[in-house]
Amino acid sequence: MRRTSQDTKAAILAAARERFGTAGFQAATIRAIAADAGIDPSMVMRYFGSKDQLFAAVAEFDLRFPDFTAMDRAQVGRSLVSHFLDRWEGDDALVILLRSSATNTDAAQRMQQIFSAQLQPLVASLAPAAESAWRAGLIATQILGVAWCRFVLQLPPVVTMTRAEIVDSVGPTIQRYLGLPDS
């Protein structure tokens, strides 16, 4: 029986979830994922373009936000930047997703989902709910911009900055986007 393109894509995604989950990103291969899905490896590349893009399509990410509502409101911007740096530095998968989101629609949608499902509710808990969407959007521009320049482009001035310098430079902007008082 012939599979539809949607069935083939679903089989690849299911096989990739399983393979990445058991073997990890580095050890998982396109050939193994294709074999698990019962297709030729070229089909994986046709639908997803690369291993990074396939990973981005199946990966689930929890940004693991602490309770920012319990902290000093004047420190939330800096704390949020520090938290994001911890997440980017501690999880290569997020960097892979970020890199892939620039050229792959599935990866870009995954990144959008992560930020809308996790960042916007956080912002709504700190700022007026009616303003949370645009405030979260502006925060995402800063956070993703720093991550893109530091971890993907590896722009020397940003890479050589210390964490404290990034937190001190970007934190007040995030604070302003949240509409919270400055420290």
Briefly, what is this?
By secondary structure, this protein is mainly α. The chain has helices at 5-27, 30-37, 41-48, 51-58, 76-90, 92-101, 105-126, 132-152, 156-159, 163-178.
Q: What is the CATH class of the largest domain? A: Mainly Alpha
What average pLDDT do the residues reach? 91
Low-confidence region ranges = none
What letter string, H or E per element, gives the SSE order? Answer: HHHHHHHHHH
Number of H- or I-type helical stretches: 10
Derived from helix and strand composition plus strand pairing, the structural class reads mainly alpha
Give the terminus-to-terminus CA distance: 65 Å
Sum up the overall morphology in one term: elongated
- Please summarize the sheet with the most strands: none
Number of beta-strand segments = 0
Helix share, percent: over 70%
Radius of gyration: 19 Å
